[in-house]
Design goal:
Layout: E1 13-15, H1 20-28, E2 33-35, H2 58-79, E3 87-96, E4 99-100, H3 107-117, E5 121-132, E6 135-147, H4 152-160, E7 181-185, H5 188-192, H6 196-205
Parallel strand pairs: 1-2, 1-3
Antiparallel strand pairs: 3-4, 3-5, 5-6, 6-7
Helix pairs in contact: 3-4
């Protein structure tokens, strides 16, 4: 491990995400953090375009987005003259039939996603990246989630709650959609948005030990 990758004291980190789920998960393992906005003002275009490239495998995509978010966060930290701290970023995607589902743009999109996931097993991939100085450490958690068959009226009632929005695949494992999931093989926290085992391992590599 490069010396550039070792911290001399336990710091807080910058979280390059506005996700309440990721914030909740970091608090769960006692990691102190400050939210680092990648955009300084509402209405600005995104600094990270979360769109798969043509022919890009899902695994490569989630890795690329997590690395990019961490790098953009580091750039924003230095540009704003903030105290230097590790920058933590993550990307979560639902994948079925080698297709990355992303977040539904509207209710119709959420209904369509849930219909495709109904009665099937899909993958949830979450990549975590930590940027410290010139280096980036990366880890990926891949889980398999099985949903029971969902009648259309149940899907529509779920979408009407609004919980589906801003969620990869159009559902929240920690919310009402838990009633849809018959089996989860992998990391619950990873499906939620931040795999805690992998996150703790990455932070440990730079000298930030959770316990």
């Amino acid at each position: 491990m490069s010396a550039a990758f070792i911290l001399t004291e336990r710091p807080s980190v910058y979280l390059a995400s506005q996700s309440p789920r990721r914030q909740e998960l970091l608090r769960q393992i006692g990691v102190e953090f400050e939210e680092l906005l990648l955009r300084e003002a509402a209405g600005r275009r995104r600094d990270v375009a979360e769109v798969p490239r043509k022919g890009e495998p899902a695994l490569d995509y989630v890795k690329r987005i997590a690395r990019t978010k961490a790098s953009v966060g580091w750039h924003q930290m230095t540009r704003r003259n903030l105290p230097p701290r590790p920058v933590l970023a993550a990307d979560t995607e639902v994948v079925a039939d080698a297709v990355v589902f992303g977040k539904p743009g509207d209710a119709a999109g959420a209904v369509a996603m849930l219909r495709r996931l109904s009665g099937r097993t899909h993958e949830v991939m979450t990549a975590v990246a930590v940027r410290w100085n010139t280096q980036i450490a990366l880890a990926v958690s891949t889980s398999r989630v099985t949903m029971r068959t969902l009648p259309d009226d149940e899907i529509e009632r779920y979408v009407a709650t609004g919980e589906c929005f801003d969620k990869a695949g159009g559902y929240a494992v920690q919310g009402r959609a838990a009633a849809f999931i018959s089996h989860l093989d992998g990391s619950y926290s990873g499906v939620m948005g931040l795999p805690l085992y992998e996150t703790a391992e990455l932070l440990g590599k730079i000298g930030y030990h959770v316990l």
